[in-house]
Amino acid sequence: MADIWEDRAIIARWSKHILSGAKSDLPSVQYDLMATLAELTGAKVPVTDGISFLPTLPRKSDKQTLQS
């Protein structure tokens, strides 16, 4: 059964880091966004199931980073 929150886009802008028009097919959920923002800011957060997609934003990698 489909959920109304499935298959939604996240739009990100980060001048000099994210190429204009860049797209990613990697699936992510809200707690991945928390892990991404924590990695970006260096914040210490409890370990969750979130996987940071920060490495995929500048298109340096197609792999996500497990939160440690």
From TrEMBL:
InterPro entries: Alkaline_phosphatase_core_sf (IPR017850). This is Uncharacterized protein.
